[in-house]
Design a protein that fits this description.
By secondary structure, the chain is an alpha+beta fold. Helix content is 32%, strand content 12%. The protein has 3 helices and 6 strands, in the order ααββαββββ. It has a 4-stranded antiparallel β-sheet, with no helix packed on it. Helix 1 runs antiparallel to helix 3. The longest helix is centred in the middle third of the chain and has 26 residues. The protein starts with a helix and ends with a strand.
Length: 152
Amino acid sequence: MSRRSWPFLLGGLLVALVLAGVVSNYASSHPDGLDSSLLKGCTVNADDEITGGSCPAQQARDHELADSPLADYGVRGVGNDFLSTGLSGVLGVLLTFTVGGGLFWLARRRNPAGTTSTGAGTTISTGPAHTATTGTTGAAGGTTASRPTGDR
């Protein structure tokens, strides 16, 4: 990764952390489209509890991981709802960033066999036809100049 990429990457991470840690607390508490469509036919009170009628939401059960540490958009054991939601978002961003970064690290472009990188953007490659290729690495990763080194 080039040095110019780090500020962009860290800036994006900072924005994601602020959005997840602070702004997520101001998201709508009203049900989304799926939740509201499952409640059609039922009457609900102010706490969104079903008080009557017949709807698919009455057959809903808790998820198997409903008692996990990060269930229900919060961190179990943290009493302050604002802090719990923000911490849950920050942990989710960091986990996603770590897993994604690890996958990108595993899939990164490596130098093919017989190619040596000098570290300054110059690649020197010697192939079976005794051709040395030198030049600066272009945007697409190829070299920009080559010369044969056969019989001189």
